[in-house]
Amino acid sequence: MIGGQTAALAWGSTVTPLIRPGASPSHVPVLSTPEGTVVLPEAIRALDGALSLSESGSPDARLLIIASDGALCGSDDEEEDPAVVSQSLVDRLRRNGCAVLWLCLDGRPQVLDGAVPVQAHDPVSAARAIGQAATAALRQAGH
C-alpha cells in the first residue's frame, strides 16, 4: 500500500493555503493570480515544511508541482531575488530526491533549472504529464 499526503496553495504577492496536508478538497478552486510572483520562495518553503519535501533519504515519493509563467519579480539584492532564492530551493529539493514539475502558463515560460516543463494549455496533456511525473517519483522512491 502506498500512503501519501498532498497540499496545495496559491501564491502571488501572498501565500494562500488551499488544501492542507491530509485534507481532501471539497471542490476544485478556480484561481486568478494577477498579482506578482515575489513570494515563490515562501510558497516552496511552506510546502516543504508541511510535506517534508526536502527530507534527505526519505523513502517517500515526493513531487512539487509549480504552475507559473515564471516571470519572477527581481531584486537588486541577489540574496533576496525570488528567482535566485527559488532556484536554490529547487536545487535543494532535487538533491534530496524530490521531483519538480513546472506547469507553463504562457507561451514563453521562464522555468527554473531542473524543473520539468509541461505546457498547461491542454488539460489532457498536463494531466498525463503530472501522472507520468508522479509515477517516476514513485519509482525513484522504490514503491
Automatic annotation (TrEMBL):
It comes from the Bacteria. This is VWA domain-containing protein. It comes from Nonomuraea recticatena.
